[in-house]
C-alpha cells in the first residue's frame, strides 16, 4: 500500500489508473490521520466527474435521529436530493441549519411527522437540534456524480467515471478546518491497487462507552426491568 501525506497546501500525490476506453478509476483509498489511525466519516468528491452509466435524477436520502445523535452523522447527497429526518427517539427534536447552502427549520416533532427538505445548492450544511445542543450532523451537498464517505476502517472505493469529466479531488472531514482540493493533473503514478492518504490532523482520543450506557439501552432496561 502506498502512503501519501497531506499538508496545508493539500495532497502531495495520488494515483490515476486508466480503465477501459472512455472510463477511468481511482484505486481503493484508505484515509488515516497523522498517527496512522483510520479516519471514518471523511468525504471525498471527484469534482465534475460523471458516471459511465446513465444517472437518474436525485432521489431521497434519510438522516435519522437515534440516541440523541444524527445517523449518519455525515451524509453526502447530490444537489436536488430531498432528505427526510425521521425521529427514532422517544423525545421530540427540533432540527435546523443556518448554513448558507441550506437554511431550514423543522420544529418540534416525533416519528415521521417532518416533511422532506430539498437540498438544491452545493456546499456544507451543518445540522443542529434546538432542544439538544450536543447534537451535530453534516450534509455535504455536491454537484458531482462520484463521491464517497470513508467507513470505520477509513476506506473509500469509488466507481468508474467518464475519462476527462473530472478536474479535481476534494477531501473534507468534520475535524478539518477547511476542505482540501487538488487538480487531477497533479496526480502522479504511484503504483499498486490501493492508496493510503494521510490527512493533516490527529483524531481526538475517545474513551469506549460502557456497555449498555446508551440512552436507548437505558430505556430498554427500564421497560424490561422497571428500574
From TrEMBL:
<dbReference type="InterPro" id="IPR008972">
    <property type="entry name" value="Cupredoxin"/>
</dbReference>
<protein>
    <recommendedName>
        <fullName>Methylamine utilization protein</fullName>
    </recommendedName>
</protein>
<feature type="region of interest" description="Disordered">
    <location>
        <begin position="203"/>
        <end position="227"/>
    </location>
</feature>
<dbReference type="InterPro" id="IPR034242">
    <property type="entry name" value="MauL"/>
</dbReference>
Amino acid at each position: 500500500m502506498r502512503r501519501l501525506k497531506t499538508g496545508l497546501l493539500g495532497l502531495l500525490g495520488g494515483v490515476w489508473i486508466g480503465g477501459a476506453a472512455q472510463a477511468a478509476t481511482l484505486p481503493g483509498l484508505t484515509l488515516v490521520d497523522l498517527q496512522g489511525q483510520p479516519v471514518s466519516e471523511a468525504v471525498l468528491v471527484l469534482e465534475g466527474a460523471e458516471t459511465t452509466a446513465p444517472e437518474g435524477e436525485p432521489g431521497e436520502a434519510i438522516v435519522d435521529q437515534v440516541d440523541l445523535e444524527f445517523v449518519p452523522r455525515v451524509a453526502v447527497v447530490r444537489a436536488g436530493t430531498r432528505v427526510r429526518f425521521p425521529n427514532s427517539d422517544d423525545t421530540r427534536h427540533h432540527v435546523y441549519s443556518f448554513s448558507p447552502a441550506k437554511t431550514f427549520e423543522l420544529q418540534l416533532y416525533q416519528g415521521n411527522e417532518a416533511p422532506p427538505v430539498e437540498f438544491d445548492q452545493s456546499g456544507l450544511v451543518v445540522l443542529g437540534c434546538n432542544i439538544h445542543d450536543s447534537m451535530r450532523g453534516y450534509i455535504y451537498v455536491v454537484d458531482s456524480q462520484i463521491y464517497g464517505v470513508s467507513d470505520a476502517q477509513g476506506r473509500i472505493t469509488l466507481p468508474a467515471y467518464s475519462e476527462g469529466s473530472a478536474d479535481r479531488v476534494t477531501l473534507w472531514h468534520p475535524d478539518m478546518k477547511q476542505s482540501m482540493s487538488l487538480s487531477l493533473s497533479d496526480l502522479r503514478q504511484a503504483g499498486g491497487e490501493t492508496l493510503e492518504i494521510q490527512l493533516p490532523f490527529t483524531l481526538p482520543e475517545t474513551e469506549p462507552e460502557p456497555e449498555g450506557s446508551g440512552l436507548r439501552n437505558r430505556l430498554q432496561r427500564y421497560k424490561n426491568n422497571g428500574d
